[in-house]
């Protein structure tokens, strides 16, 4: 699914955000990216989705190389990725259902599929009863679940979530991580960047990527889930 080889990322102002990292993610993997603020978690996710390009080294996602010259191909790659952003990026004045539908309208779905995928996705995150609520009237945890529904309604092969448990209390944070983790399937991987290391300590069958000042160490944990 993902091959990151000897990748460094230096931003225009000279900040070295990623320092010669290597990472391989298979087709059926749950990956947690942890590490202190500023260690490079978001930068790594941005590379994977093609919002940044490596300064050196290579990044391949589903066989597609992430580079500036390949921007046309990146557009079709992004159709196969479901992003969950920290700042949610929901559209106010629209309902939960409308937000999810808007998130998938430029994919290759028919009008009927858009409606069905959106309704299914809201059901999967336990929000069918809020489908017609304006997003500004939802609690933060509910809004977070709408943004997850919008990602999964794309039927992505890769789900990327950046700090999805942000402002949530313990129980809601566990719930969000469990919902995201449940989308790991035969050919679908899930990558979650999170500060909440205490919530993932005992998880099995996961990959833990620990970041520190742009470097990473990778632990592939086996065992029964
Ligand atoms: N667009 C940018 N231009 C310059 N430097 C940047 C840019 N984006 C991030 N950085 C820097 O790159 C480093 C890594 O940032 P990044 O956002 O990847 O960290 P993070 O691990 O996601 O942190 P947090 O936990 O606070 O979200 C930091 O030093 C940050 O200041
Ligand atoms: Mg970040």
Core attributes:
Rossmann fold, 225 residues, binds magnesium ion
Number of domains: 2
Oligomeric category = single chain
Order of helices and strands: EEEHEEHEHHHEHEEE
Give helix % range: 25-40%
Distance between the termini: 21 Å
Which word captures the global form? globular
Task: Describe the protein in words.
α3 (96-104) packs parallel to α5 and α5 packs parallel to α6 (170-181). The chain has helices at residues 41-48, 71-78, 96-104, 111-124, 140-152, 170-181; strands at residues 2-10, 16-25, 30-34, 56-61, 64-65, 81-84, 158-162, 189-193, 207-212, 215-220. Strands 6-7-8-3-9-10 form a six-stranded mixed beta sheet, with helices on both faces. The longest helix has 14 residues, at 111-124. The protein has 225 residues and is α/β, with parallel strands linked by helices. It contains six helices and ten strands, in the order βββαββαβαααβαβββ. It has two domains: 1-80 and 156-225, 3-Layer(aba) Sandwich (Rossmann fold), CATH 3.40.50.300; 90-155, no CATH class. The mean pLDDT is 93. The radius of gyration is 17 Å and the shape is globular. Residues 11, 13, 15, 17, 35, 37-43 line the site of adenosine-5'-triphosphate.
């Amino acid at each position: 699914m993902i091959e990151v080889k000897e990748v460094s990322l230096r931003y225009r102002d000279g900040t070295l955000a990623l320092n010669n990292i290597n990472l391989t993610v298979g087709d059926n993997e749950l990956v947690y990216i942890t590490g202190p603020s500023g260690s490079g978690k978001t930068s790594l996710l941005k590379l994977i989705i093609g919002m940044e390009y490596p300064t050196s080294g290579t990044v391949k996602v589903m066989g597609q190389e992430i580079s500036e010259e390949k921007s046309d191909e990146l557009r079709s790659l992004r159709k196969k990725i479901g992003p969950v952003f920290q700042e949610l990026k929901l559209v106010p004045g629209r309902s939960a259902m409308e937000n999810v539908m808007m998130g998938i309208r430029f994919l290759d779905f028919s009008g009927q599929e858009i409606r069905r995928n959106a309704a299914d996705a809201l059901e999967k995150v336990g929000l069918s009863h809020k489908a017609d609520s304006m997003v500004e009237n939802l609690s933060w945890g509910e809004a977070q679940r709408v943004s997850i529904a919008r990602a999964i309604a794309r039927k992505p092969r890769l789900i990327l979530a950046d700090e999805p448990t942000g402002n949530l209390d313990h129980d809601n944070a566990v719930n969000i991580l469990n919902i995201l983790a449940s989308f790991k399937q035969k050919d679908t991987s899930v990558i979650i960047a999170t500060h909440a290391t205490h919530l993932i300590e005992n998880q099995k069958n996961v990959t833990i990527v620990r970041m520190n000042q742009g470097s990473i160490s990778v632990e592939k944990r086996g065992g029964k889930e």
